[in-house]
Amino acid sequence: MHLNIKDNKVVDVKFTGKGCAISQASASMLTELIMGKDFEAVKKLSKEDILDNLGLHDLGPARIKCALLSLKVLKSGLYSYLSEKLKDTASADKIKEEASGLY
Amino acid sequence: MINIENIRNDFPILKRKVHKDKTLVYFDNAATTQKPIQVIDAISNYYLTYNSNIHRAVHELAEEATAAYESTRDKVAKFINAKNREEIVFVRGTTEAINLVAYTWGRQNVDKDDIVVTTEYEHHSNIVPWQLLTQEKGAKLEYIGVDDNGELLLDQLDKYLETGRVKLVTFSQMSNVLGTITNSEEIIRRCKKKGVRVLVDGAQSVPHLKVDLQKLDCDFFAFSAHKMLGPTGVGVLWARKELLENMIPFNGGGDMIREVHKYETSWNDLPYKFEAGTPNIADVIGFGAAIDYLEKIGMDKVREHEVDITKYALDKLSQVKGIKIYGPMDAQKRGAVISFNLGDIHPHDLATIIDEEGIAIRSGHHCAQVLMERLDVSATSRASFYIYNTKDEVDAFIKSLYRAKELFRI
Ligand SMILES: Cc1ncc(COP(=O)(O)O)c(C=O)c1O
Q: Per the CB 3.0–4.6 Å rule, which of A15, B116, B144, B239 could disulfide with A1?
């Protein structure tokens, strides 16, 4: 997943990936969801936001991973951005924790 | 032929419905098999009537429990035709058995620049322990490749053996993805000529084929109870007595000792030297009942049934347009495991769709990512059969594949 962030806004976002229908749909939906959004809002995206937008609320433990894969990737990317570019270790650590708790 | 109706009646789970009212078709036997009532009863009977710890106490319950636990060891020895009962070590499963060998024998015998040879169709449990060992020792891990028919390229083995640096060759007797039955006797013969030790992963072979260790002549052998009607949490490491005698213990603790002093300890006899702590008594007893069950049917009959149903399934599957089947197409050369891909439907999607019809298959990389890379796929679907599966179930499975094709418009 590639994001272009300018003036605290997501001005471009793309993803490449291969996988099952749920993972591809959720990745595609996620790119639409964050396009043009404030960086702060993107940081706050949660598991519930993804499942609400997908309209899938009764996924079992095996398939919920498919739905949340793209959010996990996004949060891991934001972690690198926060820690390496912005040197904001506190926010970076928080988002890393969120990413590893997604399942 | 085996009487499938009678067999099915012994498996209470086969009567349940899934997704409200769908009859269960269980085709994920390579992952774990279902358990007959005899196994379930043996376990609950232990807890209900003679639960106690083994080997130590002298009271009646302990005597009964010890006898039952030890009788499984005799059954295992007979089932795989091991020469000595004390060569049978109970562990948690195939994974633990292989790790035990890597940590003990491996650490003692593999040095810098030595070579451990495995194959491209191994389960992760027969790759990762050897990566850990060879990395620690500065040794090398090499792979015997797989040809397009899903069989091992044995010329590559010769190339490695010629270096004179190979300490161990380790391979699965049957691939859990391709179903390929390895030409084990030939590999072992070539290794013996060079004095190289051999470990055989029997996780997929022991449940389905008659295995005769004295004939096979390998050095280490590993398998799991849960893939052969038994409970989870029990497996077997078999190793030649002379090797076990010289191996350092894996776990230290109770039961594996003869005498413990402040700064030194002497080891218990085989196999107890490798069974530290209270073992999984109930499930070892359940495993004994699973072996009884298979012995009653007869492993030749098990194999005959599996070849029959696999041949039938391969025939029907190959008529499905857009299907790609992996591994040998000759049912005599493979076990009852069929991996495939249907068009570009992702295996997880396919498995989800056919699960709606009550049909349980496996999808994913099957703990064999090295093989997935070799096949150039990220995942496959896999149907695997056992003694209780029928051709009617195969028909239901094929029908559900056509439904998936319609849904995905392929
Ligand atoms: C060929 C093979 N080896 C090893 C294993 C690992 O067995 P376990 O998970 O019981 O330790 C499996 C099971 O998935 C297998 O199919």
A: A15
